[in-house]
Amino acid sequence: MPAMFARYLPAAIERFLFSPFSLLLVVAIAFVLNAWSLPLTDVDEGAFSEATREMMARGNLVSPTLNDAPRHDKPILIYWAQAASVSVLGVSEIGFRLPSIIFAVLWMLALYRFCQRHADRRTAQVAALVMGLSLAVGFIAKAAISDALLNLFIALSMFGIYDFFCAERDGRPTRRLLYYTYAMLGLGFLTKGPVAVFFPLLVSGLFFVSAGSWRAWLRAVFFWPGWLLFLAIVVPWHVAVFLDQGDAFFRGFYLKHNVNRYSNTFEGHGGKWYYYIAVLPFVLMPFTGWLLAIVGKIGGQLRRTPLGSMRGDGLFERFLVLWFVVVFVFFSSSGTQLPHYLLYGCTPVFILLAKYRPTAERRWLAYVPLVLFALLLAVLPEILAYAAAKAGKPFEKMLLDGLVVAFSDSARWLLPLMALGVIGLALWRSLPVWQGIVLAGVLQALVVSVVIAPRAISVTQGPIREAAQVARETGGNVVAWRIIMPSFSVYRQAATPTRVPVEGELVLTRTDRQHEVRALLAPGLRMENLYQKSFVTLARVEREGAK
Question: Comparing C-alpha atoms, which of 333, 302, 343, 296 is closest to residue 319?
Fold first, then answer.
């Protein structure tokens, strides 16, 4: 019986991984699970959601605001998508997150179909599984932010470019592909601005020149009907926002959030050349070792296709590698660096991982980073306890103490159990390497969605949601003092300006900053706490001696 089990189980696993049910399982766990119940995270989810809520409340679908101040961080498309969802599902976590879930699924579907066209169905299936189970993709797929939408349009633009190249090479019609690609560029521009056009243009230029097809690239770049379509998508909203705000959006978004963000470090995010070398292993987890195991194969394939040739088995790989390298180098040189920026160049990595999936070779190289990550998660409760004991700042101490309590329950055995499962898959020598790592990815996604995220977010965001509920039930004006938590406004369903409170108002502040508020109050006023938990305090400002 054990021999039959060992013989037939790998075959059953392979059938499952190549079936549609595995993709449905990955979407359910990595993209959907708990997306309807976890509190919105700050700052990004809270900011996008509150801007959408205020836009709908004001009846102004042109100019987003955040706590009644103009918000120039992003163009309009993500806010329209969230508004459409919230108008159906109401102001709720799933209402704001559903667009990202849908866009992530569409991104996966587009990846699958592209791989079908240029590889085969099995490679398409594995690429979709790898994408869905990558750690960073799982985070943005269920987050109420613009990244899933942007990655969808960057991928579709790049796919259109490579399809155009193949059509040009083979003498097939290209006009429809050009219209399609320019439309995707326009929609990407309405999602994030110039970055959605910059990467496709630069990567395509380098690739076409390397293939000796620069004339075809020039024909595509100077295809004026495509640019007319692009402008038809992009210009109307820009005209509308100019008529509504003047040049405020153009100065705030294009100068501050594009030019200045690249040349300067914003909010302490990055600025180091090695930043993405350190970040990439976590972005791709659990597939980091898999990538290390196949780099040699990819390099060998690239060397077999000479520069200047439009034919060759390595052209597909060259396009994918150029796509990743351009994104990696560009953001490594940026003054502002965030982990999710790297995802703009990870779609080709998912394809390369699928195409060169390892079976038995370099097993330990493929598994070691994953095993180390699983062991790190296994001792996470101990790491948190150690950090809490060493924390010196009150704010950090409050957060870490809360996390220690949150992870002191069943997480103490669930996380080590995951590590044992990963080690067991690594030792299962009759199971192909790629299949074991995909199964480990399912296990990782399940642990992140069920064990880690609910506990971490309940500590960091739960008090904000509870404080907002107290404020909404109490009523009256509410202000914030030196705390940036836009989700508070979402849950209260009212803007929360930042200023010193006056008599009769409620004030939201960090617990360790209550003394600052008291010092700024007018003589004869005091703070009466209505809610205090961890780092969050909600208080009423009233006259001393008042009951």
Answer: 302
DSSP 386-413: HHHHH--SHHHHHHHHHHHHHTTSTHHH
d(CA 269, CA 288): 23
Cα–Cα distance for residue pair 412/485, rounded to 1 Å: 30
Q: Classify residue 90 by its DSSP letter.
A: -
Band the pLDDT of 272: cuts 50, 70, 90.
Answer: confident
Closest CA to 190 of 343, 97, 62: 62
**Average pLDDT over every residue of 70-84:** 94
In whole angstroms, give the CA distance from residue 239 to residue 489.
Answer: 29
Mean pLDDT computed over 99-127: 97
Residues in CB range of 269: below 8 A, 6 or more apart: 336, 337, 338
Could you give the CA distance from residue 228 to residue 235 in angstroms, rounded to a whole number?
Answer: 10
In this prediction the pTM is 0.94
Give the contacts of 300 (CB within 8 A, at least 6 positions apart).
none
Instruction: Please give the Cα distance from 362 to 345 (Å, whole number).
Output: 25
Q: Residue 341 in contact with residue 331, Cβ under 8 Å?
A: yes
For the segment 313-342, what is each residue's pLDDT rounded down to a tens digit? Answer: 789 999 999 999 999 999 998 877 888 899
